[in-house]
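Quick review question:
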């Protein structure tokens, strides 16, 4: 599976024209057994998760991570605002940070 990912990465990085035709939503970064940083482009979260899981199973790869630039996401991740104990969509929000004594 990893060899397929690496071959796919080489094809994607070799042509700027092909990259401009489709929007890459997710990128999987990893370091190979020689310490070289690599990346793999994926259009879906499911595909990115499967790729990362496959890389993590093999001990020769490390620092496996997924990043995303979702153009449909507006605002910060999580709850943007809480007013009167409710989120903007009306759900009750009661999370409280508890500090250890």
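Suggested answer, residue by residue:
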């Amino acid at each position: 599976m990893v060899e397929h990912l690496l071959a796919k990465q080489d094809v994607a990085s070799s042509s700027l024209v092909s990259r401009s035709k489709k929007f890459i939503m997710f990128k999987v970064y990893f370091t190979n057994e020689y310490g070289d940083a690599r990346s793999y482009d994926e259009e879906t979260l499911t595909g990115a998760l499967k790729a990362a899981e496959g890389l993590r199973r093999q001990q020769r790869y490390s620092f496996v991570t997924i990043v995303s630039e979702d153009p449909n996401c507006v605002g910060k991740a999580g709850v943007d605002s809480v007013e009167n104990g409710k989120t903007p969509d009306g759900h009750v929000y009661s999370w409280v940070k508890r500090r250890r004594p």
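Why it works: The first strand starts at residue 26 and ends at 31. The first helix runs from residue 2 to 14.
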